[in-house]
Amino acid sequence: MKRRLVFLSRICLHSIWMLFLSMLAFSQSRTITGKVVEAGGQSPLPGVTVQVKGATIGTQTRIDGSYSLNVPGGSVTLVFTFVGYKTTEMPVGSSNTVNVSLTADVTALKDVVVVGYGTQKKQEVTSAITSIEPTDFRQSGARNALDLIQGKVAGLQITRTGGSNPNTSPAIQLRGVTSLTGSMSPLIVIDGIPGGNLDLLQQDDIASISVLKDGSAAAIYGTQANGGVIIVTTKKGTKGPARVTYNNYFRKEYKARLPKFLTADEYAAKIADGEINATDKGYRTDFVDLLVNHNNLTQNHNLAISGGGEQSNYRASVYYLNQEGILKANERQQYGGRLSITSKGLNDRLTSQFNLATNFNKANLLTDGGNLQGYYTFNPTYSPYNPDGSWYFEQTSTNELARLHQQTDIRQQQTTSGDARVSLDVAKGLKASIFGSVTRDSYLEGGYADLLSELSVENYDSTGYAFQSTFLNVRYAVEPTLEYNITVNKNHNFTAIGGYSYRYEVEQYFDANNYGFVNDIFQENNLGAGNMLLTGKAGMSSYKNDNKLIAFFGRINYNYKDKYMASVILRHEGSSRFGANNKWGNFPALSVGWNMRDEPFMQDVTFLDDLKLRAGYGVTGNSGINNYSSLVTMGTGGNYINPDGVWRQTYGPNKNPNPNLKWEKKSEYNIGVDFSFFKGRITGAVDVYKRVTKDLLENVTTQLPPFVTNSIYANVGQVSSKGVEITLSGSPVRTRDFSWNIDMAFSNSKNTLDRYSNELYTIKYQSYADIGGYGALGNAIRTYEGDRIGNFYGKRFAGLTDSGDWLFYKADGTKAPADQLDSEKDFAVIGNAVPKVYLSFTNTFKYKNFDLRAFFRGKFGYNILNTMEMFYGSKASLPSNVLKTAFTKNGKITGGYQYSDYYIEKGNFMKLDELTLGYTVPFKSKKTFQSMRLYVTASNLWLITKYTGNDPDYVRDTGLKPGVDALNASDDRTPYMGTRGFMFGLNVGF
Amino acid sequence: MKRFKKIAVYTSLALLPVLANSCTNLDEKAYDTLLTNNFYNNKNEVVSAVLRPYTHANAWITPGQSGWWRLSELSGDQLAWPQKGRHGYDNGQWIRLHYHTWTVDESTVLNCWNLLWTGLGFCNDAIGNIEGRDAAKMGLTQVEKDGFTGELRLLRAFHYLRLMDIYGNIPIVTTVGEPVSPETKPRAEVFSFIEKEIKDNIDKSPNLSKALLGRMSKAGGYAMLAELYLNAEKWSGTARWDDCIAACDALINNTAGGMNGALALDTNLTDTYKPSNDLSKEIIFSIAYDYIISNFSPQWPGDFYHFNQGQINGNPINGNDGVVVIPGVYTTFEDADKRKKEWLLIGPQWKYGSADTIPVICSGGNEYDGKQLVFVDNIRKNAQGSTVSDMTQGEENSGVRFNKYRLGPLTDPNYRSCDWAVYRLSWIYFVKAEAIMRKNGGVATQEAVDLVNTIKKRAYSAADWPAHAYTTTTLTMDELLAELGREFIFEGYRRQELIRFGKYTTNTWWDHKPSEAYRELFPIPRTQLQLNANLKQNDGYPN
């Protein structure tokens, strides 16, 4: 049936062509027939456009690849064009039969790559850049634009530490840690806006995402490029009549991989047989399930219209996205739009482009997953209600269900960006442009706790609690540039760009809170009505800070016959954040490329389509530190009583001065090769890099005395990383009806902390990743100079005493209880939390109009600290509810909480991250519908791992405090519930 | 083509000034932060800097953070922070304090060092800035300026006194940042420096008065001298009993002012510790709190209070279930001693105001979850029927608890505002008594007995008192140490006392065994030794 539909639609289309052609046919014409096949495979190619060169006569090939075309008399040339294949011209001789075989064109689709301040032809690129197109996007309903490329770019780690919580952003890190205290995330550039806001990006508006991985490409962004640069280009209008597209999806999420606590019945049975010393209150409650939003449904709608004429084009889109998390009171509703207009004037010499994007969102922040721990561990024979139906409260725990009913926390945010670029072709090859942008991000957040809520009853004398806060961040950028393009002696092509960049960012915040309300009517809408303004217990605070970034930059690209390429970059940049003695820095880069395919000696290597060697070196910096870091300030010290009996704020110095504060600088070597074999059947790239970041900023301990505080923010450290990244694509099967493609991304890296010391200050090691929770177990990670980042450092399990107490190894090999161990001598490296290998691969199958995609993603060679097991896999936690393992695997342990290698597990996993089945509806007539695709996607469908804690995919693997399973919210961890999602989507074009 | 060139030239010319002018200015403007180089311009700013070390002293002199108090009490024979089930192991730091097995990397020792020296830095910074500026330019009279610097120098001496108490040999630094690596001075030299600083400034400092609530004054100066001379034999090698008695007399004879009229003993066991203890007549120097007006409230509930303690007190303040009274200490209080009931908490606990009818129920998933909170005078796992008693064997209800200072119920107009007394007149009585006895070869005189009895008598009913009054025979040195323990329990002086009586490293208490003699001093934190080559580690500790 489907097949017939296709056939009919082709016939229909064909007839239109024929009708069109017959009107133009000349009387002395002759009819040419022939067949178009794929080069190599000899399979027929239907739908190939066959045209007479220089005329409007043409046709399309039939299902079997054959065509017939009336051509005018005399010598004519036929042009065969087909998407994905090289355009081929064929002169028509005396024969009336012209058979053609078309060669696949592997570079045709992706021949332009977006680089900093411009674009480059892919074959001219000399540094490590990965560009991802929408067809390759990860498709599971992105909560953040970068979710779209998770696992798709070798060397770029995108980790959803907050799981599927719609209100969290992923942790992003490129090629390892590059800073200790400064920003580690890549710079996001959206249509030229540096530091673009990801909230403004909707999946359906993105045309490409380009990742500048190495320093030789990123140096053009100078001091914000240490973490790499991600350049996002949005879709623009193209010439032609108005086209309308509508995309939607609906998603539902289900619980996945919950920790196995005792059920209420099991718990009660253990009370009954004396294993648990607690009171059975007679209820049987699945507390955690009470927090789950079983009716969750996420929906996304995006409507876009685009078109244009000779002088201008436009694209406008609007969207509505309502995301509901797996947990109750965890939602994000957003809508907005994006508008893009491009127009030409002054005889096409003046080009103007304007973009406007806005996002309104309303987030329910009451739940962030931090409420799970309390309910996992709550005695399940209790009820959230008292016998009289009122909420059950006790001082040392929170009734999370009651909290959801009695409290609110809503953030209403609006983000808008506007940018304009005006370019003038001043002379041949010379173009002057000016770019300006504003991004404004603001929110109003408010929340209220009812008079009878637990928060109010236990802390605010049952008088309610209300707060509001406002936030405003505005970023401005102005960047004039001059571009010059010249070809000398035919073969020497130079492209140069020079510019100036001025950026200013200012941020303001205000919040106020009050309690002492007489009823719940006002909520947070009449803060002044609370009593506590009179008593001084109402709270109020605000801040404002700003910073400036100014740069001069330039780049020259040289290209000789598309064979030899070179690129030179220099950026001279200054930031207000640095010390008076070191405001400015220089960031140079050099890269070269060699297209070997075009060398005469390679001509005989027939299986080779393309082979390019690249090498680059670049220096970048990091200015992502706090504002005013180098200034000496007075800090508040709390109120104290003045001689006049009034309590006033006290002030004392809170920082040690460092006028020499300067840039963290990264220098990076990258060598790469791009290749394509067997007519595009195998393509890929291999990159090898080594990067060293020096002058890392860290709060180092100073001599105390004589200083007032014991730390100074200084340039002391050095980190380095080296690694290999491989991207491979292959097409094992490529026939007319069926194709199979494999895309693979692999990366392996080693990230070490080389040094913490400089000539003034010495630090032996730094500790990270506060474990939090009961017993103050301290930091899980300690990194000595020269160590790999993410080393777990702690006690080594040596068995249990007869009574079940812990024994650990001392340095001399003897066993001892925990308090006899010296953390400096007896502790050891007991694991590492940074995966050595990241691997992902996509299998795409296409059969006629069906497509099936399976995306696998995994991390290997690392450890995770199973905090859930450490805290709740032990009888020491009784009578809190505990994991079943407390009575099985760990049944003998009676000692209190101890952090040791007993709880360090291998984190290795591979998961079926996305499975999509799609169907493209073939239309007979394209009068109303241009295209339609339906698909279903399952995300996080299947996980293979030996790790026994939560889903290892959600465990932080970036930064300096990785590897601690998020049980509590200590140290910026974001616990959430594992989920599996199912999605249905529709894309329609009119 | 010609026209293009023109445009090119004009465009370049237009762009040039843009690039060359003000667009390279990276000066910073602070909107919400005070910069140090623009401060001390008026009296309010000066006062705010003078008072900064006091709010900071809250951190190190009162329980609640690892400062002078925790090192002094948790290493002594009265208080400990045992592990209680899954709570309170805290990297073994409390256990090592109790067993005297702390290391040179001990965070409690480092934290105390940092807190004290930072407080001292606040003093140095303010002294340097105020002394270096013209009084008029700060909006002060010369008298006010001298008063502030005199007070700050006394307060700085106080920091040195307590640093010397803990670490013994320390550097002497009077200017912020100079020298960068100051050298260790022997304890005797530090002693002399402190003595001179107090003597030089005591008369420049104002008399104690209500306006100096929570501040260092001339009275505080004498109390410091009393402490200095009382410990002089240990600290400087030379006994100074007469100087000690003279300093005590200056206070007992009321020559340095008082906070509420003349300095005098409070007449009962509660006035010194109640929420409105700013009305106490005997407090000489305190850290002042006022939660109601200023939100500045005591930090010690964190160390002392059980997770459900608020219900006992009629307020929402709970703690970390940390510090408890070591088993056996409770019974050193006689039953007739009203301090036993008034200052300590034992047995079943009841909700505030319920007249012992509504029990306080434990919650939070610990040993006695769902059951009544009952504090016991032992540290062992009673829920499991265990009789093993040591620092790791506690439960949530283990140990007799602190009940000396009171926050008051929510309804109290002075709720959470009780000041923490650093020096009080009762202690001066004991100091004088001890000095007299030591001067007398460790034998009590009638004067010493009278001084001690004056204080002790407050704890007994008129009927009970005659049977419990000391005589020159019963007030032995050991008995004095025991009575010091009872009267000043929780107040931070136990380590000093045990050292003065030669018991700190030689005695056994509960599961604590005698330690090495060098443990009388804490080590200089290794972190600082590594940064400053001029620091010298105390004897007995590795570098």
Explained architecture:
The complex is a heterodimer of chains A (990) and B (543). By secondary structure, chain A is mainly beta. Chain A contains 9 helices and 50 strands. In chain A, the strands form 11 sheets. Chain A has a 22-stranded antiparallel β-barrel. The two termini of chain A are 24 Å apart. Mean pLDDT of chain A is 89; it is low at 1-9, 11-27 and 106-110. With 543 residues, chain B is mostly helical. Chain B has helices at residues 2-20, 43-61, 68-73, 93-99, 107-131, 142-167, 187-202, 218-230, 232-235, 241-252, 291-294, 301-304, 310-313, 338-343, 425-439, 446-456, 465-468, 477-487, 494-500, 526-531; strands spanning 34-35, 79-80, 283-287, 324-325, 344-345, 347-348, 374-375, 401-402, 420-424. In chain B, helix 6 packs antiparallel against helix 7 (187-202), helix 6 (142-167) packs parallel to helix 8 (218-230) and helix 15 (425-439) packs antiparallel against helix 16 (446-456). Chain B is globular, with a radius of gyration of 27 Å. Chain B starts with a helix and ends in a 12-residue tail after the last helix.
Q: Summarize this, please?
A:
With 990 residues, chain A is mainly beta. Chains A and B meet through strand 22, strand 26, strand 30 and strand 31 of A and helix 1, strand 1, helix 2, helix 5 and helix 11 of B.
